Give the backbone structure.
Amino acid sequence: MGPLIRLETTLRGTNMNIIEPIWVALQCSVQKRSPPPGTLLDLRTVLQDSWCGKPPGYRQTLVYTMPRRVAALLCTRVDPKRY
């Protein structure tokens, strides 16, 4: 099995991407495994264990921070340039 590939997003995109912090946490769990998962089933098990091991409020906190993230993006928004 090859390395995991993560698509890069722009800085602006990561502020709105509620999945990014979850992905980073799951990715760290996979990378800490020794030995690393050798099959897709092993990978699935590691991801499920990590997901279930998160505190109950983890995902809810990400949802609650969205209004603040959106407000911050709106404050820094740059209007398109006219040519």
Remarks:
- The chain has a mean pLDDT of 80.
- The two ends are 48 Å apart (CA to CA).
- The chain is about 65% helix and 0% strand.
